[in-house]
Amino acid sequence: MIKRLLVANRGEVALRVIRACRELGVESVAVYSDADAHAPHVSAADRAVHVGPAAAAESYLSTARLLDAVHTSSADAVHPGYGFLSENASFAAACEKAGVTFVGPPSSVIAQMGSKIAARRLMDSAGVPVVPGDTPLDQSDAGVAAAMARVGFPALVKASAGGGGKGMRRVDDEAHGLEAIQMARREAESAFGDGTLYVEAVIERPRHVEVQIFADNHDHVVHLFERECSVQRRHQKVIEESPSLVVTPRLRSRMTDAAIQAARACGYRNAGTVEFLVDVSNGRGAERFFFLEMNTRLQVEHPVTEQVTGLDIVRAQILVASGEPLPWTSPWITQRGHAIEARVYAEDPANGFLPQAGRLLLYREPAMPGVRVDSGVAEGGEVPVHYDPLLAKVIATASTRDEATTRLVCALKAFPILGVRTNIPFLLRILEHPRFRSGEIDTGFLDTDGASLATSASVQIPDAVRDVLRAFTTGDPSRGTSRESRVDPWKVLTSWRP
Amino acid sequence: MAAVTRIGNGVYRVDDDGRQAIVYVAGTAGDLWAFWNGEVYRDGDQSSPPKGGHYRREHHDGGHYDLTAPMPATVVKILVAAGQTVKHGDTLVVLEAMKMELPIRAPADAVVQAVNCREGELVQPERTLVELA
Question: Is residue A451 less than 8 Å (CB to CB) from chain B?
Answer without folding.
Answer: yes
